[in-house]
Amino acid sequence: MEMSGLRKVDPVKHEQKRGEILGAAIRCFIRDGFRGASTTDICTEAGISPGHLYHYFASKEAIIEAMIDLGLARSAEKFEKILAAPDVIEALLVDIEESSLRFRPAQILNLDGLAEAARNPEFAEIIERHTGAVRRMWSDFLRQAQQQGRVDPGLDPDATANILIALVDGSRAMPIRNPKLDIKQSVEHLRTMLVRFLPPPPDAQSVATKPRIQKTGRPLKLVRKR
């Protein structure tokens, strides 16, 4: 018996609509905060009804999870590009400047997310999972850079990842704390910090094999599907 009454879902259009709703949600979160933005606000921004929303996301928390997964996937791509760059530290600095010091949405979402996690246990679990994934990504990146002879092999990748995550978080807070921040000067100071912290010592550099700069290395498969 043919089920002619069932509506077939076009997977391409479905994902496209999910992306549109996710973009609308991000705009709402930036404007009103994670706590302040409601599903009604998101539906209004996306131009859909609340009933329509639930064909794509079961809840606001599901939207936030999808937003985080999207961010992690983009971060994995950026780490691959940084590993392929001739100068890892310079590539890191460019990314920090573009995605932290100069990117207002990331500044707002980062600080608001931490604030919401401090008062909302369920949101804190989401942030903890996100931070764990980011930490694994940083650690994997550092291990690969160490294997290439481009980062001090004496550094513990996991501990170093925590420090670099804190540095990125701090970079996102700086322009909010000081709207007149001299970003160019800040980048130079960050360069000094990273150049003194990450590179292998001269004796290690002299015996290290020449790093193989490849277009793509081992994928950083750290976005875990739930």
What does this structure look like?
The structure is a single chain. The chain has 226 residues and is an all-alpha fold. The longest helix has 27 residues, at 121-147. Mean pLDDT is 89; it is low at 207-217 and 221-226. The radius of gyration is 21 Å and the shape is elongated. The protein has 10 helices and no strands.
Uncertain stretches: 207-217, 221-226
Count of runs of 4 or more consecutive helical residues: 10
Q: Based on helices, strands and strand pairing, what is the structural class? A: mainly alpha
Strand residue percentage: under 5%
Q: Note the main sheet.
A: none
Rg over CA atoms: 21 Å
The SSE string, one letter per element, is: HHHHHHHHHH
Number of strands: 0
**How would you classify the quaternary structure?**
single chain
Distance between the terminal alpha carbons, to the nearest Å? 35 Å
Roughly how much helix do the residues carry, as a percent range?
over 70%
The mean pLDDT is: 89
- The coarse overall form would be elongated
